[in-house]
Each structure stands twice: as structure tokens, then as C-alpha cells.
Amino acid sequence: MHNTLLTPLDKVITIAKKHYIELQKNNIVTVQDLLSYFPREYEDRSNFTDFANIRADQTNILIGEFLSVHKEKTRNNFQLVKAQFRENTSQQIIECVWFNARGIDKTLPLHQKVMISAKAKLNYGKISLQTPKVQKYEGEISEGLFPIYPTHSFITEKWFFRKLHEELIPQIHNGNINIPNVVPSYFLEKFNLLNKKEALLILHYPKDKISLKKAQNSLAFEELFVLQLVSLYKKQNIQNAKHESCVQAIPLNACLMKDFFKTLPFTPTNAQKISIFEILKDYEKPIPMQRLLEGDVGSGKTLVAMCAILPLILEGYQACIIAPTEILAKQLFRGITEFLAEAEKQDFFKKYKIKKLENNYNKNSENKPDNTLFECEEIIENNHYIQTEFLSGSIKGKKREKLLEKLRTNQIQILVGTHAILEDPVIFHHLGLAIVDEQHRFGVMQREKLLQKASPHFLQMSATPIPRSLAIVAFGDMDLSVLNELPPGRQKIETKVITETGRRTIELFIDDQIEKGRQAFVICPLVETSESEGFEDLRSVEEEFIRLSKHIFPHRKVAILHGKMKSKEKDEIMMDFKNKEYDILVATSVVEVGVDVPNATIMIIEGAERFGLSQLHQFRGRVGRGTHKSYCFLLHTKSYRNQRLSAMETTQNGFELAEMDMKMRGTGEIFGLKQSGIPDLKMANLMDGRK
Fold this sequence. Notes:
Elements: H1 17-25, H2 31-35, E1 41-44, E2 59-73, E3 79-87, E4 93-99, H3 104-107, E5 114-123, E6 126-136, E7 145-148, H4 157-173, H5 185-190, H6 196-204, H7 209-239, H8 254-262, H9 270-283, E8 290-295, H10 301-314, E9 318-322, H11 326-345, H12 348-351, E10 354-359, E11 374-380, E12 388-391, H13 397-408, E13 414-417, E14 431-437, H14 444-453, E15 457-462, H15 468-474, E16 479-483, E17 494-498, H16 503-515, E18 519-523, H17 541-552, E19 558-561, H18 567-578, E20 584-587, E21 600-605, H19 613-620, E22 631-635, H20 643-650, H21 654-665
Parallel strand pairs: 4-6, 8-15, 8-16, 9-13, 9-14, 12-13, 14-15, 17-22, 18-20, 18-21, 19-20, 21-22
Antiparallel strand pairs: 1-7, 2-3, 2-5, 3-4, 5-6, 10-11
Helix pairs in contact: 6-7, 9-10, 10-11, 19-21
């Protein structure tokens, strides 16, 4: 019986219990998981170095033999292993050193031809090789690109190499493990791709860079091919969905939008108009819309949401908007009600009346009605029927019961709130549109729960710009609208990268701005001070709050905000800051998205090198929302200038920064896609058009 890629690892290779537990922690449990554990880099062992050409700044590959080995202890009680190595060409003796390498003195092969790779160190004119990697030399078999695997805890690179190359891969060669092709042969031939078995074997031991590139391209194509198939399958399922609350097709009414635009105190951007048009065209189809609206910070998504809602509520349907936090939900609620109030003030609803959808089926019948039973029968003459309400977890008791009853009986047209809207007691009369703000905080299960309530049109909004290539793959089951321009008058935020030497100058500048009536954000990467390696120099929220409030700005009102606080407390502090109760807000990344504080003009980001460019851009977007000039200062812990951060000084476009971020760090968790059910891509590089 042949094994498959889904066969448990312990069925095909020998694994000690401690190793098996560690592998499980890292989601390596099947044959496919281990085969997909690709090398992090490759050493080119085809170019050997002799003694005369050893370089201290690069990895050196040498052929020779070990003559002797012994252990030593340093003054700090560290154990060293030292060995004498004779280089094959020059016959020169070179000292090799291993630090804290237990057992190497017992396993090192003496008087045998070996190949070693190591970086050299020059000390008092003497060359030594530091922690060499040793491999038995077997002529051409040993040469080529040698795989270097990532390590996990006590599972070493040597362990991964041995299990893959001595136990697993031989079973693939002899046919004990079957590896079928995922990509049809038509595409393999058309694009000159390798089959999956060949590609995997080459990736784990390529002969040269050309074969490695071809294997990488082949597996990258497979990843994107599978993602697109899954996305198309999801999209087809949504389009084929039949549900009692599914909305009917609504013809595009251009006059409606033109008249509504006349009630606005500003002119919508071309990007807003295009996005609105795309949504209204979706309404003309007899299937639920599934659309992602992504826009840069301050690009005007709330107006697009309002224009998406308007045609549906005029046809008698209901709409809901869901935001990740109460303060963001309240901000959206205010934006929507202000648009409606201005339209009502200008007699917009005297021309455009709300229709009421009457449900004419027998309410005692257990049979679910089909869409033909929903007819537009009654015209509501009173525009006060446009009721917009707010719902969150903090609304309880009779007030909540009354609100839910009004929602069930169609007395509420627009419901804005938090994830409390997803709870089972929340029942809509005729939900026509569901809008989710900040979609990267809205998981797959939550989306499914919402769609279980009805089959409404669905619009996801994101203020985190995602490169188009990634958005198409990650959200392939959705159509894409992009707000890639800012409304006129939006100010450029002056951005500077600052080292520790410039801190005092910035603090004096903050004080001057506060004296003029402005406010400032200070963002820290940690909640508490950490002594862990790599975190010693980073400032925590708690530490910085004490420093600023007691020593730097004792005459100013300073508040603290972080994720360990209760939601109600966080919202209260944020609202107080918005209402100018505080001059400075010291916070973690909880202020990353959406909060609108027009009076805040300064954004200080501590340990800026710890954040991605997209996240830094989100922080920067918290200021510059009023009429005053705004500033963003990126403080980093290194004395040298950070080139990645320098991009923030020259680029204000979130989409450009997102592309830079993806080039530098890969897709991974940058755009919060894990919540959306998108797997990490191991091979596909979405910035490379060839893939």
C-alpha cells in the first residue's frame, strides 16, 4: 500500500517522542508538512576555497581532513571544542572552533576527507573557522547548492536534513510515497513547469540555481492555482445561494446619486464615484454582491458606504454596518446620521420616498417563502421612517429589547454597531446590505455567522491598503473597488525619522504645539518593559507614561491606553482624548485604525523599526484630520539611519508603502490575512508578475 502526502509522519519515518511533540507545535504532522518545510537558504558548495583565498566576510567552502580534536573551558565556564583541520590544496593547518557544541568532539570524523563550510575570523594575524558545518565529501554528490533548514527549539538543522534526505526522500524515489500532480498537465506543458514530485525533490537538493528557480516557479504556480480555484468555488456558491431574505435586483438610478451628491458640502472624488457606480451595478444582478472596498487613510469610505445603503433603504430593505470597536462604530454612526440629516434638511426625502416590503406569505406556515413573495406595496410618506440606531454590548436591558423589537418589525432602516450585531437575538426584518469596516479584524467564522442571518449584499471595507496583486488572490471570491485618491484639501503629514539624539528637540516641539492648543499621540511597541533579548532598548507604554507625565510634561494632562484594558475603559479614554480632556495619549497599537481626532497634530512612534510600513502609515493617519499642519516622528533605537523607515519620509501613498512592505517582509501577517482564512504563501511572490 502506497503512502500519500497526508500520511502521518510517524508512519513513514522514525521520530522520538520529544521531537514529535515539537513538530506538532509547529504544525508539521504529515508527509506533506515535512516536504513543505523548505530550506531557508542554500550554500553554494560548488565553488571551493583554498587557504590563500579564505575571506572573513563570507562563507568559505573547504575540502580537507580533521587531524585532532579537544575540549577547552573559557574563564566564563563556556565549553569550546577545537579541532585542527588540514586544507586539501595548500596542506595548511587551520583551527576550527565550536562554541557550546556538546558532543561534536565525539562525532567529528578524523582522517577522513570532508567538506566544511564556515565563516573565518582573523585574530592577531591568525585565521580560525567559526562553528563549521561538516559533511562527508563524496565528490560531485557533495557539490551544488546545499540546503540550510530553519531550526525549532531543540530540533536542529542536522535533524531536519537527516530525516528528509536519509529517510523520507528515499521513499519518494522508490515509489513508497505517492505524490500526485495538482496542476493539470496542460498548464505544466504550456508554462514549462515541473510536476510536483520533481519540484519538491529539487527544492530540497538543487543541482544549480537554474533548476532551483524552475522548481520554485512550479510550486508557486500551484499555490496560486489552488487559491484561485478555492476563491472561484466560494464565489460560485454565493452566487448560487437561495435564501428567503435575498434581495431582488435594483435598477441603477443615476438621478438618485446626482441629487444626493448635491446635498454634500464637498464634491466626491473620482475614485469614490467609480466605487459607488461599481456597487450600484452589482445591485442590478439577481445575486448578492460580494465586494471589498479598500482605501487609503482618509479616502472617504464612509460616503461610499452611505451611497451603498441609500438605494436599498429606499426600496424598503435594511442595512447594517459592523465595526471592530465601539468607538469606531460610534464614529461611523455619527458620519451616517450627519449625511442623512443634511439630506433631510435639503428636502432630499420629499423627492425620494421609502418603499415598504410587505411579506405576504402565511405567517403560520412552516414553508419558507421565496423571493417572489416580497412585493413593493406601500409608500411611506413620512421620511422619519429612516431610523438609524446604534447597538453594542454596552446597550442592555429594556433599551436593548426595545431596539431589537423595532429592528424585527422594520422600524429601523440602518443599524450601526459592533460585533454584538452578530448575536443570535439580533433578527432583521429584511436585511439587504451588510457592511463590515476594518475587514482584517473580521474573521471567516464571523462572516459566515452574518451570512446565516440572511443572504444580503456584502461589502467589506479596509483602511489598510493591500497591493492589488495580493487582494485579487487573497479575496478572489470578492470583487474589488479601490479608493486610491484623497479628497481635496487633505494635508500632507510631515514625517521625520529621529534617532535618540533628537529626542529632546521633539519633546520641546510637542510642548510648543500643546501650548497652541494641539494634542499628541505617543505609540509604544510594548505594554510592559521587557528584558528579553532584542527588546531591552524598547520603551513600554507604562514606562513612557510615567516618564512623560512625571518628568517631561508634569504640567500637561497625559493619558495611557493599551490592549489589556477593558473595552469600556479604552473607549472612555479615547473619547476623553477626542474631547480635549487630555493633551497627550500614550498608547499601543490599539489606536491603529479609524479613530478620528481632528485636533491631534503630532504622532510619535517609539521603536518604529519594530513596525511594518503599512502599520506605521496607519498610525500616521491618526493625525492630519483637521485644519492644522500635522507631524509624524519615527524614533528608532539604532544610531544609524534606517533605510526602510526613510521610505515613510518620502511616501504618503499607503498603496506604495504596502507594496514596499510586501517586498521586504513577504505576505505573512502584514495585512492581517490570517483572520480572513488566507494561508501563508510559501513559494509564490505576489510582487513578481511572472508568477
